[in-house]
Design goal:
Layout (H helix, E strand, L loop, with lengths): L1 H45 L2 H5 L3 H43 L1 H8 L1 H39 L1 H6 L3 H27 L1 H26 L6 H42 L21 E9 L5 E10 L4 E5 L6 H8 L7 E6 L2 E2 L5 H5 L2 E4 L8 E2 H6 L7 H10 L3 H6 L7 E2 L8 H15 L3 E5 L7 H15 L3 E5 L11 E6 L2 E6 L1 H7 L2 H12 L1
Parallel strand pairs: 3-10, 3-11, 6-9, 9-10
Antiparallel strand pairs: 1-2, 1-4, 4-5, 7-8, 11-12
Helix pairs in contact: 1-3, 1-9, 3-5, 3-9, 4-8, 5-7, 5-8, 5-9, 8-9, 13-15, 15-16
The chain binds adenosine-5'-diphosphate (ADP).
The site of adenosine-5'-diphosphate has 12 residues, from helix 10.
């Protein structure tokens, strides 16, 4: 009677728990995963450039997408199962105790053996899963790099080579996965083994005790008891699976938290104030900077740019030109020295207030997926369609846009595939104009641009620069003849400074560079 009631209670409990389990597991699991994914993404959005400089983008992606998804599997399959299993385990132990104490103790003897085994296996398992997630990350990094670099790959006919590399990476991922899974599979059979061993022990001892009449063991009790033994080890098997999954999850969680804990080195200082609207007066005071310890890229740079002044920065590749302007947007912090805008040290103002007053146009003008209209509006989300078109008109972008099949509504994607370099740059001019910043930074595109586009860009640029402090990293010197001041930068120092005519008269490095370009043309 008691036995039947107990069995019924356990079955009912299990069925009921299963129903709740399905609901909770899908909900809570997905909630956690969603929160985590959002957290890690928003953190990555804030990380400084230096973070992205030092690792492949695919490795960052894999953390946001794959690791979080894997964790989701573990959570939804494991967590709730475990709670129900622990409950049924508890019930079973209580029933076993209530039936017969010595027999229960015999069964429980298996537990320490099980726990010891888990401990021994754990280390190897963790290492295996860590290696597996590492391989996964490599594989993803390679996929992402290959897609980004597909143009280079195909022009250098490297497809076969890439496929070979990918094949290797994939094979090594497969191997690491199989290895990890194999180790994990060692758990199940072992539990089986202990289960059988304890059953046998209970039988042997039980029969002896029936004969000796020890502790009141009867045939009925022994039969009932052995039925419980398998019920006892069953949840432990699932628990062991859960421990497996948990170990896997730990290796993913470690990676996820590594990213979430990554310090945002470029952040607002305590008590940082918003930068009031500036006129655009910029001053660099004894700036030294290095990307990597010990390799000085900027060496004691000092200069002043009046509000509205246009400054061209020229010099050989690797001289430090981009680095100079990167410090102005505070994409990096200087090692020593100060950058001041209208007399405010950049370290003392909020980054947002600084960057909203600054327009940056990178060499490879980034085009987001969407329409041309959206892409220009990125400069100022509040701008109306008319204002967008107005801006495009001012920088001479309107005409080419109207020639596209859908005009401003033409869809473009990340690489701006259907747009030429010059057209992308015109769009970024319009975007910058719409943002109406006081300070403009332009890293000019190096690609050769036909004379007609160049004239167009020049006209657009002149309108854009009007009345703003501007820094132009120029590769075509014709663009910058009219700039107020030209810096000739080499080895992280400003070697020569002055107007085009002054520098030409000096017959120095700038003169040489200029002469060589125009002799070549
Ligand atoms: P330029 O714009 O004059 O071509 P950069 O300012 O881009 O030169 O680079 C100056 C030096 O700093 C180069 O030697 C370059 O290799 C190094 N450098 C540039 N960016 C990074 C980076 N993100 N991490 C490490 N070194 C860098």
């Amino acid at each position: 009677g008691l036995l039947a009631a107990a069995t019924l209670a356990i079955s009912l409990f299990t069925a009921f728990a299963l129903k709740i389990k399905i609901n909770i597991m899908t909900k809570i699991g997905q909630d956690i995963v969603h929160d985590l994914r959002t957290d890690i993404f928003s953190h990555v959005q804030k990380l400084p450039f230096s973070y992205f400089d030092s690792r492949p983008h695919g490795k960052i992606q894999v953390r946001i997408v794959n690791y979080v998804n894997n964790l989701s599997d573990v959570l939804s399959n494991g967590l709730v199962n475990t709670i129900t299993d622990l409950c049924s385990l508890l019930f079973i132990i209580i029933f076993m105790f209530s039936i017969n104490l010595p027999l229960t103790l015999v069964v429980l003897c298996g537990l320490p053996v099980f726990i010891a085994y888990v401990f021994i296996l754990k280390k190897r398992q963790r290492r295996a899963w860590r290696i597996q997630s590492n391989k996964q990350s490599n594989l993803n990094a390679y996929i992402s790099e290959s897609i980004n670099g597909i143009r280079v790959t195909q022009s250098f006919v490297r497809e076969e080579e890439n496929i070979r590399i990918f094949d290797n990476l994939s094979a090594s991922y497969r191997a690491s996965w199989l290895h990890a899974v194999t180790i994990s599979f060692l758990m199940g059979p072992f539990v089986q083994l202990i289960s059988t061993a304890t059953s046998v022990a209970a039988y042997v001892l039980g029969i002896r005790w029936i004969m000796t009449g020890f502790s009141g063991v009867t045939v009925g009790i022994l039969v009932a008891f052995t039925a419980y033994i398998s019920r006892f080890w069953q949840p432990i098997t699932t628990l062991a699976d859960f421990i497996n999954n948990l170990l896997t999850a730990v290796s993913y969680v470690e990676r996820i938290f590594e990213t979430i804990d990554e310090p945002v080195t470029i952040h607002d200082r305590d008590g940082a104030l918003p930068l009031p609207p500036v006129t655009g007066h910029v001053e660099y005071k004894n700036i030294c900077f290095s990307y990597e310890d010990g390799v000085r890229v900027l060496d004691d740079i000092s200069f002043t740019a009046r509000a509205g002044e246009s400054i061209a920065i020229v010099g050989p590749t690797g001289a430090g030109k981009s680095t100079i302007v990167n410090l102005l947007s505070r994409f990096y912090n200087p090692d020593s020295g100060q950058v001041l805008v209208d007399g405010h040290d950049l370290q003392d103002v909020t980054i947002q207030s600084l960057r909203t007053q600054m327009g940056v146009m990178m060499q490879d003008s980034f085009i987001f997926k969407g329409t041309i209209m959206d892409n220009i509006r990125y400069g100022n989300m509040e701008a109306s369609d008319e204002q967008v078109m107005q801006a495009a008109q001012t920088v001479c972008a309107h005409d080419f846009i109207m020639q596209l099949e859908d005009g401003y509504q033409t869809e473009v994607n990340e690489r701006g595939s259907r747009l030429s370099v010059g057209q992308r740059q015109l769009i970024s001019f319009a975007r910058a104009l719409l943002a109406d910043p006081r300070i403009l930074i332009l890293d000019e595109a190096t690609s050769s641009i036909d004379t007609e586009t160049e004239l167009l860009l020049q006209r657009g640029l002149n309108k854009l620069l009007k009345g703003r402090t501007s820094f132009i990293i120029a590769h075509r010197l014709s663009t910058i003849k009219n700039c107020d001041t030209i810096f000739y930068v080499d080895h992280g120092k400003i070697m020569e400074r002055g107007s085009h005519y002054e520098l030409m008269a000096q017959l120095g490095q700038y003169y040489k560079l200029y002469s060589s370009q125009f002799a070549l043309l």
